[in-house]
Amino acid sequence: MGGRWTVPVIVLLLAVALGSAYWGYTHYDARRDLEIAVANSYQNSFYSLVDSIEKIEVSLAKALVANGMSENVRYLATVWQEAMTAQANLSQLPLGQETLMNVAKFLTQSGDYAYMLMRSHTLGKTLSPKDREQLQNLRQQVTLLGQNLHEVQAKAGQGQLRWAEIEQISRKKLPSDTKSLADDPFTKINDGIEKFPTLIYDGPFSDHVEQKQPKGLTGPELDEAEARKKVQAFLPSSLKDGTDLEKAADIKGKIAGYNYVVRAEGERGILATVDISRKGGHILNMINFRSVDDASMDLEEAGAKATEFLASKGFKNMVPTYAMRADNIAVIPFAPEIDDVLIYPDLIKVNVALDNGEVVGYEALGYIMSHHTREIPKPKISAEEARAAVNPELQISSTRLAIIPTEDLKEAFCYEFKGVSSDNEPYIVYVSAETGEEVNILKVIVNEEGTTTI
Amino acid sequence: MRRLALSLVAIMLAAMLWGLAEPVRVPDTAEAQARPTLHWGSTGSNVRLVQWKLQSWGYYRGPIDGVFGTQTSQAVRRFQARNGLNADGLVGPSTWAALGFGSAAPAAARARAVASRGVSRSENVDLLARVVAAEAEGEPYSGQVAVAATILNRVRNPRFPNSLNGVIFQRHAFESVTNGLIWRRTPSATSYRAARDALNGYDPTYGAIFFWNPSKPVNPWIWSRSIITQIGSHVFAR
Questions:
Q1: Assigned domain for B24 exists
Q2: Percentages helix, strand, coil for chain A, rounded to the nearest 5?
Q3: How many CB pairs under 8 A join A and B?
């Protein structure tokens, strides 16, 4: 029992205990501060979201009442802007993936639709009865979403909305049917949104873009043995000798295919991978994993090597459109040229190693998705007439005809004007060869790595 | 008495562990970018970093205020002279390195990405490469490109934010962002190449917007998505 050490030991332990309690408390304090800060930022995002939904609803209502197109443009611009703001705020909230995805899709498509209407207004087209009907429906849906959000906001205003709990519910790794933890007010919102009909329109985020089917997937179905033979024939000699070719996976989805990997004989490490479509046996892509440590040729020589390669695979009339380099590899996209018209949607990208000119990358998804036998149209207006649509300050160095992809995955037949602006910046301007309207402007970036466009 | 002492020790240990259990991690965003060259008149967090380092090594006595003034300039010259560097008072790559801050981004990161997906700036390559490094380390190269491509597919999908940073920093979208791994791992040259290949349009997943490792616990809901393919240890789905 107790000796002369008892008192000092107790004093020491008490001091240490107090010290660590203080240390622990400061940590707890810091953590609580952070938790409050995070909850406040959720609250902020949520209030901004509700605010944007209200503005969308009001602007849609006004757009339906407004008579003039110029006024309508103003309201539709607000719808577009607020829908994007709402989307950004929504993605900051700690909600479940399903709810997030459904609400986000609704907001993106609403904004996208308003933007496309606005664009057609600037080209002088008025709202069709179909557009009006769709806007009316959209307004009802936004109103409904707004009401549901208001209910949640009322809770939030009374401090009853606990973001930490909502976050926990959304992170629970439970199947959706057991997620009936009714505490989550956003489940109801999600259920409402799922019942909304799809917006039908042409825009980069509309459903038809996702549902687009490949046009260039021609030919008979191949079995694995035939596909394998085609892949073997495609491989460059450096990947043919002393290697094993092995089917690694099936590819399902829009394009059904096989994934093959190349290994050094009897080894585990993968040297390259090749994807081939089941229908027609088109090579979709090839990536050679080898690193390229030095460069002994320039982009022009690499371009010649890539052209030669494509010709050997049966692609005629392909011309390099621009080039860039990274890690001693040149990336060169090619497009077919038919009757002096460059067809940009049918893109094949070829990567050339700048040490020995070998093709180390190939990607033909653009080509497979859009290539078909095209009737090359005759331009309805002359190059001089189209030139009138281009800013006169642009000093034009070259003019040609081209078919370009548009935002909504359609195509436009255009004059391509390459030129330099008054402040010496290079641009490419596309003017429709059918209507004479400006379709797109690209800013060209030239640096030591090559030429790219924005 | 012994028992009391033991239980006190146990309580203390518990208290310490409790304190340690939830370390607060703030991403070091300065580390994520290539270091800029600093000179007299520069301001900002990078200057603060230099001042802090010089102060802790005894070269600098002024305030850590993020303003590159005369005092900072003199401290930098002293530090450079002492470390065999050209004493020009500029904090360039060699001085950054001598201060112990290597340029975080390899030279490859400076290459520009092609604007084929509405995502174009070189900073985006850095961010994408970070996610690739954290999410797909040890995967075959095509599996790394696939992870980057999946992220880019989300940018173009109406169900997800319309910017790369929006997609990456969405709450709980990526485990490595939630747990901070993307800020702790430095992307390799391969991660950068994978990010760039994806920005150039390579998509070995043919439009996937989800990927997961089937050997790890995931939300069962995810299995209701339609699976496109498997690359390495990841399943890719729409």
A1: no
A2: 45, 25, 30
A3: 180
Helix (H, G, I), strand (E, B) or coil at A268: coil
Domain ranges of chain A: 6-210, 212-289, 292-373, 383-453
Which domain does B85 fall in, by range?
A: 29-98
* b/e sequence A353-382, b meaning 16+ C-beta within 10 Å: bbbebbbbbbbbbbbbbbbeebeeeebebe
Contact A31 B24 (CB under 8 A): yes
Calpha distance A60→A78 (Å, rounded): 9
Residue corresponding to tokens 């002359």 = A382
Task: Nearest by CB to B206, from A251, A261, A327: name it.
Answer: A251
For the ranges A102-111, B81-90, B217-226, B229-238, the lowest mean pLDDT is seen at: B81-90
DSSP B67: B
Q: What number is the ipTM of this complex?
A: 0.82
Considering the domain architecture, whether residues B163 and B232 belong to the same structural domain is answered as yes
Using a CB-CB cut-off of 8 Å, the residues of chain B touching A24 are 15-16, 18-19
In CATH terms, the fold of domain A212-289 is: Nuclear Transport Factor 2; Chain: A, (3.10.450)
Position A438 scores a pLDDT of 84
Q: Say if A104 is an interface residue toward chain B (CB within 8 Å).
A: yes
A406 touches B at CB < 8 Å = no
A173·B218 Cβ contact <8 A? yes
Amino acid letter for position A259: N
Which residues lie across from A259 on neighbouring strands? A249, A275
Residue A249 forms contact with B (CB below 8 Å): yes
Question: In angstroms, rounded to a whole number, what is the distance separating the alpha carbons of residues A102 and A108?
Answer: 10
Residues in chain A with CB shorter than 8 Å from the CB of B166 are: 88, 91
Q: How many Å lie between the alpha carbon of B4 and the closest alpha carbon of chain A?
A: 9
What is the pLDDT, as a whole number, of residue B11? Answer: 57
Given this model, what pLDDT does residue B117 score?
Answer: 37
Question: Final residue of a domain: which of B54, B69, B98?
Answer: B98
To the nearest whole number, what is the mean pLDDT of chain B? 76
Question: Does B226 lie in the same domain as B159?
Answer: yes
CB B141 to CB A13 under 8 A?
no
Number of domains chain B contains: 2
Q: What's the pLDDT score for residue A177?
A: 45
The predicted model scores a pTM of 0.74
Asked if residue B21 is part of any domain, the answer here is no
Q: What is the pLDDT of residues A105-138, one digit of tens each?
A: 999 999 999 998 998 888 788 888 888 889 999 9
Residue B94 falls inside a structural domain? yes
Pick the CATH number of A292-373 from 3.10.450, 1.10.10, 1.10.20, 3.30.710: 3.10.450
User: Which residues share a beta bridge with A336?
Assistant: A318
The residues in A 197-236 lying below 8 A from B, measured between CB atoms, are 204-206, 210
pLDDT at B8 over 70: no
- CA atoms of B131 and A10, how far apart (whole Å): 51
Q: What is the least distance, in Å, from the CA of A140 to any CA of chain B? A: 21
**What pLDDT, on the 0 to 100 scale, is given for residue A1?**
52
Indicate which CATH number applies to the domain containing B196: 1.10.10.2520
B219 lies in the same domain as B151: yes
Structure tokens at B237: 């789905």
Domain match, B133 and B233 both: yes
Q: What's the CATH architecture for A383-453?
A: Roll (3.10)
Residue-level pLDDT at B173 = 86
On whether both B140 and B219 belong to a single domain, the answer is yes
Positions in chain A whose pLDDT score sits under 70: 1-2, 171-184, 446-454
How many angstroms separate the CA of residue B208 from the nearest CA in chain A? Answer: 9
